[in-house]
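Sample pair:
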Amino acid sequence: MRLSTHALADLLWYSGLQQAEQGFWRNTALYMGLSPTRDESIDFYDDLLEEQLVEEAARHVGLPIAAKDRVTFFQGHASALVALHQAASAIQQGHLERAIICGVDSLVGPDELQVLYEQERLKTPARSRGLMAGEASAAFLVEPLSLALRRQAPLQCLVGAIEVGQEPRPRAEGGLPMGLELSKVIDRSLRSSSRVGTLYGDLNGEDSRASEWGGARVRLQSRHDLSGAVELWPATSLGDTGAASGALSVVAAARSLSRGHTAPGEVLVWSSADSGEVASALLRRHEPSRMSSSLPKH
């Protein structure tokens, strides 16, 4: 609750929407991305989160968003991009005007650490390869470019080519994904790309994720040249932030694009959940002189 409300309050402050009229939020959705409970002995906790977290977070920061438009995603690392894909579809079909997407997670609690340790997933003095536990939250808002320009919103970037897929044998079920499904979603995202200058990915120090990305790169190299892209792995600095990782990558990429800190070209963001969901999105710098039908993020 604390992490999610901090992210939502920061978004409202930065975008100048703290005092927005209630009508502004009438056709707005709030999507919350989470990870399934890692401790199977308390799996009922997911039901409590789904029933209460989004509603309480919205109430805490003063978002008058209808119950039907408050949705929880339990796709772990891929939650933010899966939510972004659903938001884009709903906006394009006219069901929504905009959506707030928030990813939040913590792997640093004693229960989480114990589960990860027992599964031999943590990086420790005795185990040189593994994840470093982190916690974070991040939130962003998407809406059609025409609406954003009309209200003179602080545009950060344009979002396009959002793709999602499902690995048939995910890590959570003992599988070892070799990047086939990940390469497919990235390939579809890159079909509209002229050049990828920067890449935000989902490596966290675990061998299984390195194998997945390596397999995807091999499959992609005949169709897309990513050799010159700057590769950034947020977990290197923040640790594994679970369901917050995708939202963090989108926000970091958007801010870098708006400030001109990225390498020339588009930014590719990809995520891979332990439960098998994979997703990718292409982000572009907003050029005020060039209209686009893509969805801007601010």
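The domain at 2-146 is CATH 3.40.47.10 (Peroxisomal Thiolase; Chain A, domain 1).
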